[in-house]
Amino acid sequence: MSALLTVDSLVKRFGSGNRTHTAVDKVSFELFPGEVLGIVGESGSGKSTTVRCLMGLERPESGDLRYDGINLRRMTFAQQRRFRSEVQMVFQDPYSSLNPRMTIGRIVAEPLRVNTKLSAAARRDRVVEMLELVGLEARHLARYPRSFSGGQRQRIAIARALVSGPRVLVCDEPVSALDVSVQAQVLNLLKDMQEKLSLSVLFIAHDLAVVRYLCDRLVIMQNGVAVEQGTRDEVYDHPAHPYTQALLEAVPRADPAGERMRRQQRRALIEARTA
Fold first, then answer.
1. How far apart are CA 118 and CA 99, in angstroms?
2. Which residues belong to CATH 3.40.50.300 in the chain?
3. Average pLDDT in the 217-246 region?
4. Range in 29-33, 91-95, 217-221, 262-266 with the lowest mean pLDDT
């Protein structure tokens, strides 16, 4: 099976002259059809910058980025339209990613208006279908984002991303701004949508507990470098890199008696990887 998305030796720097920072350093990975791939790392590890380069929101210095064989850095206008229709993104903050001056009906319909020739009536029917699929109702069409909770806003953002029938969904920490109980609802929704629609998902997160539930394979990033890759079970059961081991040790557990020892072990691992 050939990869749907390919990132090969991606490099992204910020700054100029002698004051440059390499945010992403020769990162490579592949996303296969129907797969959920997690990119995991702490803040500043380069995971979101990697995705922004992939989506065309940042211009990389070098590297090969491909979608279904198409070179993303040399796309024709027709290829750009196809890519934007077939690869959709869900952002971290569900409120700032929704236009507060537009109704929910207009927000979710926007990808259809831009990328298809559907009539207004057909667009409305498709929007209602997607809202119901994510647990909302047709009566919500005329409301504005301010009328909804954080979890409902993220459901709206997911409906907007799915309304044009994409093959790939890119999620940039889509639950990190939500309460824990709401996180579970959104994660369950994403898992259901991925299975029902046979989506390929690129899921960005810093929480290993979250990605273990959702992802098939993992890429662990530290300081702009992909330090470890493998299946979910390989990474969780046999972490090879000290940084991965430190991330796993940082996952909270319901065992207060052993927490002090784990903190000491975690500190030793972090000191070892930074030495």
1. 22
2. 5-100+166-238
3. 92
4. 262-266
CA 180 vs. chain centroid, Å, equals 18
3-state SS of the chain is CCCCEEEEEEEEEEEECCEEEEEEEEEEEEECCCCEEEEECCCCCCHHHHHHHHCCCCCCCEEEEEECCEECCCCCHHHHHHHHHHEEEECCCCCCCCCCCCCHHHHHHHHHHHHCCCCHHHHHHHHHHHHHHCCCCHHHCCCCHHHCCHHHHHHHHHHHHHCCCCCEEEEECCCCCCCHHHHHHHHHHHHHHHHHHCCEEEEEECCHHHHHHHCCEEEEEECCEEEEEEEHHHHHHCCCCHHHHHHHHCCCCCCHHHHHHHHHHHHHHHHHHHC
pLDDT, tens digit (0-9, with 9 covering 90-100), for 139-153: 999 999 999 988 899
Q: Which amino acid is at 56?
A: G
Q: Is the whole model's pTM more than 0.90, yes or no? A: no
Q: Which fold has domain 5-100+166-238?
A: Rossmann fold (3.40.50)
